[in-house]
């Protein structure tokens, strides 16, 4: 029985073909196997089993070796982006309480600074490669491993203003990769064009599908996603066959008509997730590139995605795109406030169960208990997604929005209240409210006060990741619907003519 996701290496560790490739380098499966075991051996004396290790890195061929090294040592990795504001980095490190910080060669200076600030040992990839592989020590950690041990902690936006760490076990990751590879026929002939940064949940597909199947993952430079013509040129040149992208990337290519100039004929499957994809944008892709299109749905708490819908038709421009049916070994139902199942056709909250579930929120038992609930008659655990959905007569699930004030933007879950909390601490803002326009994929901040939009944006960048900083700012004489730190988003959107 497989207990550790790295046991996939038994199928691929002998391969000399490239497992991962970035702009400047490539690493083969056998090279990666040895590199990651050296990293794991370096970590063995530094942290007890199942403790957390922060991994500060950019997206490169070094990234997999760092993550896999942590797992070989029986530890749990916490991916952290060096592009985050310093305060958010500190908050994440405070929550996850790592034993040490591991880094690639691109972030060594920042890693050393954080290590010194927090009193943590900072270890670099190059230092780890000098370590001899401790076969006995790694084997002992693997022997003690269970498939319910944590593999990673990925942080998302939190309504309290502090990021939440979602901890997932090896079993959830193994089941997801097994089912994904089987459902969509991923093989050693595939080239995965990877968009996701290492600290985003969708990156697990890019990282672990190669280990199981022998496919190659090509890390696409982030800058190309703002220039769709060059992006598609790159995809075509690399011979990518699988594109697992967030919906906003698909939309941008459509809106700028990038497929009019370059059609990457090698692509056999396009997956999109993270937010609702406008049907008109999907229709453009379908008409320009005749291949398989798959809509994915699922939050971080259920290991990337729990349902899928494969399109067998060209969509109409006003069509509501289904989120489909659950993956094998995953349960989904529509429930009321108490978790009682509702009849097909009725709207309610989407509940998800099965081995796909995360362990909960790291260090936050109260939040875990609210979101991961035990339901009768067996006391089975289900995750309350907070999403409103329904099941149609065709048996497919559909998404109808949120029950609360969380939105999906650029593939990330964002609590609007976290943006507002940060803005209220800025001098010159007396009151504020943040709204999201899904059609334009745009965050907007409405505020009362003497601060200028430029001042607000600069201050917010000190506390929030770039994808959470609003693009538009509107000064108002008053915000009567924003009182006591609470926002009535629906009423405010109606008053301003915007959308939630």
In short:
The chain has 500 residues and is of the alpha/beta class.
SSE map:
Blueprint: H1 9-12, E1 18-21, E2 26-28, H2 29-43, E3 52-56, H3 63-72, E4 76-80, H4 86-96, E5 100-103, H5 108-118, E6 121-124, H6 125-128, H7 135-144, E7 150-156, E8 164-169, H8 170-184, E9 191-194, H9 203-213, E10 216-219, H10 228-238, E11 242-246, H11 247-255, E12 269-273, H12 279-288, E13 292-297, E14 307-310, E15 325-326, E16 330-335, E17 348-354, E18 360-361, H13 365-371, E19 372-375, E20 380-391, E21 397-402, E22 406-409, E23 412-415, H14 416-424, E24 431-437, E25 442-448, H15 453-463, E26 472-475, E27 482-483, E28 486-487, H16 489-496
Parallel strand pairs: 1-10, 3-4, 3-5, 5-6, 9-10, 11-12, 12-13, 25-26
Antiparallel strand pairs: 1-2, 7-8, 8-18, 13-14, 14-15, 16-17, 17-20, 19-20, 20-21, 22-23, 24-25, 27-28
Overview of this protein structure:
The chain is of the alpha/beta class. It has two domains: 5-310, ANL, N-terminal domain (Rossmann fold); 427-496, 2-Layer Sandwich (GMP Synthetase, Chain A, domain 3), CATH 3.30.300.30. It is built from 16 helices and 28 strands. Strands 11-12-13-14-15 form a five-stranded mixed β-sheet. Strand 5 (100-103), helix 5 and strand 6 form a beta-alpha-beta unit. Helix 2 packs across helix 3 (63-72), helix 8 crosses helix 9 and helix 11 packs across helix 12 (279-288). The chain is globular, with a radius of gyration of 22 Å.
């Amino acid at each position: 029985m497989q207990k550790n996701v790295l046991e996939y290496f038994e199928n691929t560790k002998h391969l000399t073909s490239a497992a991962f490739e970035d702009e400047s380098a490539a690493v083969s499966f056998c090279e990666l196997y040895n590199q990651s075991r050296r990293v794991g051996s370096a970590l063995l004396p530094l942290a007890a089993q199942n403790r957390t290790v922060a991994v500060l890195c950019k997206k490169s061929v070094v990234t997999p070796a760092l993550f896999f090294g942590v797992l070989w040592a029986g530890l749990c990795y916490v991916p952290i982006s060096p592009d985050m504001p310093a305060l958010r980095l500190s908050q994440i490190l405070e929550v996850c309480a790592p034993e040490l910080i591991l880094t690639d060669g691109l972030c060594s200076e920042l890693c050393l600074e954080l290590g010194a600030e927090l009193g943590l040992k900072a270890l670099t990839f190059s230092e780890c490669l000098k370590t001899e592989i401790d076969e006995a020590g790694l084997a002992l950690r693997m022997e003690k491993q269970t498939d319910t041990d944590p593999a990673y902690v990925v942080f998302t936006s939190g309504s309290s203003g502090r990021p939440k760490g979602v901890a997932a076990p090896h079993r959830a990751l193994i089941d997801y990769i097994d089912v994904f590879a089987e459902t969509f026929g991923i093989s050693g002939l595939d080239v995965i064009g990877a968009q996701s940064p290492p600290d985003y949940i969708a990156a697990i597909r890019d990282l672990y599908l190669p280990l199981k199947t022998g496919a190659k993952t090509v890390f696409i430079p982030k800058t190309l996603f703002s220039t769709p013509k060059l992006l598609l040129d790159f995809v075509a040149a690399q011979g990518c066959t699988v594109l697992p992208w967030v919906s906003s990337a698909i939309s941008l290519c459509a809106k700028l008509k990038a497929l009019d100039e370059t059609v990457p004929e090698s692509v056999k499957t396009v997956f999109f997730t993270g937010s609702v994809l406008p049907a008109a944008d999907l229709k453009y892709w379908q008409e320009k590139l005749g291949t398989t299109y798959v809509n994915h749905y699922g939050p971080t708490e259920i290991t990337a995605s729990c349902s899928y819908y494969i399109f067998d038709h060209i969509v109409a421009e006003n069509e509501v795109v289904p989120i489909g049916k659950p993956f094998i070994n995953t349960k989904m139902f529509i429930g009321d406030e108490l978790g009682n199942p509702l009849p097909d056709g009725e709207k309610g909250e989407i509940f998800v169960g099965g081995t796909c579930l995360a362990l909960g929120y790291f260090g936050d038992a109260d939040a875990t208990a609210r979101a991961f609930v035990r339901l009768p008659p067996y006391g089975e655990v289900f995750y309350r997604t907070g999403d409103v959905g329904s099941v149609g007569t065709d048996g497919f699930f559909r998404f109808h929005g949120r029950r609360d004030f969380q939105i999906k933007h650029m593939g990330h879950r964002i609590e609007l209240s976290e943006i507002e909390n940060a803005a209220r601490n800025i001098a010159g803002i007396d009151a504020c409210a943040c709204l999201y326009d899904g059609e334009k994929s745009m965050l907007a901040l409405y505020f009362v006060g003497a601060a200028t939009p430029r001042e607000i944006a600069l201050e917010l960048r000190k506390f929030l990741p770039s994808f959470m900083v609003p693009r538009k700012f509107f000064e108002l004489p008053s915000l009567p619907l924003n009182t006591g730190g609470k926002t009535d988003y629906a009423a405010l959107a109606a008053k301003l003519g915007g959308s939630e």
